[in-house]
């Protein structure tokens, strides 16, 4: 296996809560924990992993990483809206390459299947509420999953029941798209 790099980050550090969800759950705690589960699996698969530090801003992380065309860059987040919106979506760059599109679709379809929640599909950053994303300016197969809605109790219950499977699945898909 060639030594390409999986960039697997949480996107929110300890002082950046991100979205607040049911029962006061904070997006940063969820993404840090999920990132660590994914990375443990990637390491088992023999991958070299780069991640953000829990004290580092997203800007600091993006400023120090330099993925190549052969690497993968995945940063799962949680969506939030009105407490009722449900489902998974995966964001890609407006000018995403074919590997990014294929990886995003595979992740989105798999997350919806594993959790049994609506598949909202792959969206470009312009189609999303987030607008332009710094992560999307990086080379490689790049996507930003919004795993489910952190403010929807049934979405989070589905996430809690399945997070180990979701982490293993994420690592397997990243391993597949990391060119070797
Ligand atoms: Zn987020």
TrEMBL record:
<dbReference type="Pfam" id="PF01520">
    <property type="entry name" value="Amidase_3"/>
</dbReference>
<dbReference type="GO" id="GO:0030288">
    <property type="term" value="C:outer membrane-bounded periplasmic space"/>
</dbReference>
<dbReference type="GO" id="GO:0008745">
    <property type="term" value="F:N-acetylmuramoyl-L-alanine amidase activity"/>
</dbReference>
<dbReference type="InterPro" id="IPR050695">
    <property type="entry name" value="N-acetylmuramoyl_amidase_3"/>
</dbReference>
<feature type="domain" description="MurNAc-LAA">
    <location>
        <begin position="68"/>
        <end position="173"/>
    </location>
</feature>
<dbReference type="GO" id="GO:0009253">
    <property type="term" value="P:peptidoglycan catabolic process"/>
</dbReference>
<protein>
    <recommendedName>
        <fullName>N-acetylmuramoyl-L-alanine amidase</fullName>
        <ecNumber>3.5.1.28</ecNumber>
    </recommendedName>
</protein>
<dbReference type="InterPro" id="IPR002508">
    <property type="entry name" value="MurNAc-LAA_cat"/>
</dbReference>
């Amino acid at each position: 296996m060639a030594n390409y790099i999986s960039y697997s980050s949480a996107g929110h550090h300890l002082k950046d809560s991100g979205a607040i969800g049911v029962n006061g759950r904070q997006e940063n705690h969820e993404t840090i924990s999920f990132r660590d589960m994914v990375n443990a699996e990637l390491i088992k698969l023999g991958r070299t992993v780069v991640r953000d530090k829990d004290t580092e801003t997203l800007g600091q992380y993006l400023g120090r990483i330099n993925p190549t065309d052969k690497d993968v860059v995945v940063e799962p987040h949680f969506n939030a809206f009105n407490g009722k919106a449900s489902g998974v979506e995966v964001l890609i760059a407006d000018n995403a390459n074919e590997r990014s599109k294929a990886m995003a679709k595979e992740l989105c379809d798999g997350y919806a299947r594993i959790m049994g929640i609506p598949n909202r599909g792959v969206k470009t950053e312009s189609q999303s509420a987030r607008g332009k994303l710094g992560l999307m300016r990086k080379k490689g197969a790049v996507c930003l999953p919004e795993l489910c809605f952190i403010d929807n109790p049934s979405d989070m219950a589905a996430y809690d029941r399945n997070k180990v499977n979701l982490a293993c699945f994420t690592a397997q898909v990243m391993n597949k798209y990391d060119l070797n």
